[in-house]
Specification:
With about 240 residues, the protein is mostly helical. Helix content is about 55%, strand content about 0%. Helix 7 packs parallel to helix 9.
Length: about 240
C-alpha cells in the first residue's frame, strides 16, 4: 500500500529549552525551533508558550505561540517549497549520522527483547537520565550556553506574573460531569465498558470500542479505570 510509505510526523518545540529567567527569550527559541520543524517537512506542529517554565500558559502566551506558526505559514514563504534544504551536503551528512545512531539504538533494543523489556529493565529511562544529566552539567559549567541563565544574565529582572486559573475550576468541572451523567445513556455506557473489559482481557484492539465510548459520553477516568482493573498499574522501574 503506497499510503504506508508516507512518513507523517508531528513536531513539538522543546519544552526542556524553556527558561524561567528572561522568559520572553523563549519566544525566540520557540520560533527558531518551529522553523527547523517546518524545514524538516513536518505535517503537524505544536509551539510551546513562552511562560511554560513558570506556570500554565496564559492566554497571551498561547496566542503568541499560535501567531508564531501563522507568521511562518503566511509571511515567510517557507511552506511554498517541498524540501527547502534539498541538496545541502551538510544536512545530508547530519541525516546519515542520525540514521546510523538511531539504528544502533534499535539494534540494542531488539537484542534486549524489545521495547517493553527495555522499559521494564529501566534501560530506556537510564539512557534518558544520562542525557539529561550531561546536559545539566554542560549548562552548569557554561559549555552549553543558555541565554539569560549562564550568560547575558540580568542583575535585576522583572518577575513574570504567573497565570492564575479560575479558583472555581474544579467546582465548574464537577457540575459539567454531573450534567453529562444525567443526560447520557448510562446503560449504553455501562454495556460498552463491559465490552471494553472483555476486549482488554482478550488483548484485542481497544480503539473501536473506545471510539464508541467517547461518542456515548464516557469519561476518560471511566475508560482508564477498566485498563487498570484488567492490566494493573505499571510501576516505573528504579534507575540508579
Amino acid at each position: 500500500n503506497p499510503e504506508a510509505y508516507r512518513f507523517r510526523f508531528h513536531v513539538q518545540t522543546a519544552g526542556c529549552s524553556l527558561t524561567a529567567r528572561q522568559p520572553m527569550v523563549n519566544i525566540i527559541r520557540t520560533a527558531y525551533q518551529a522553523l527547523e520543524a517546518v524545514l524538516g517537512g513536518c505535517q503537524s506542529l505544536h509551539t510551546n508558550s513562552y511562560d511554560e517554565a513558570i506556570c500554565l500558559p496564559s492566554e497571551e502566551a498561547v496566542r503568541l505561540a499560535v501567531r508564531t506558526q501563522e507568521v511562518l505559514q503566511e509571511e515567510t514563504g517557507v511552506g511554498s517549497v517541498i524540501d527547502p534544504l534539498a541538496g545541502s551536503y551538510y544536512v545530508e551528512a547530519l541525516t546519515r549520522e542520525l540514521e546510523e545512531r538511531i539504528w544502533d539504538y534499535f539494534l540494542k533494543i531488539e537484542e534486549m527483547g524489545g521495547v517493553v523489556e527495555a522499559l521494564n529493565t529501566g534501560w530506556l529511562f537510564g539512557e534518558m537520565s544520562k542525557a539529561f544529566n550531561k546536559r545539566r552539567r554542560d549548562q552548569e559549567s557554561g559549555e552549553e550556553k543558555v541565554i539569560g541563565v549562564n550568560c547575558y544574565v540580568l542583575e535585576e529582572e522583572e518577575p513574570t506574573p504567573p497565570f492564575r486559573t479560575n479558583p472555581r475550576a474544579a467546582e465548574i468541572e464537577k457540575e459539567r460531569l454531573r450534567r453529562l451523567r444525567e443526560e447520557r445513556d448510562n446503560r449504553k455506557v455501562a454495556a460498552l465498558l463491559d465490552q471494553l473489559r472483555r476486549v482488554c482481557e482478550r488483548r484485542e484492539n481497544v480503539l473501536p470500542v473506545v471510539t464508541e465510548l467517547t461518542a456515548a459520553g464516557a469519561t476518560l477516568g471511566e475508560i482508564t479505570s477498566v485498563y487498570r482493573e484488567v492490566w494493573g498499574i505499571w510501576q516505573l522501574p528504579f534507575v540508579a
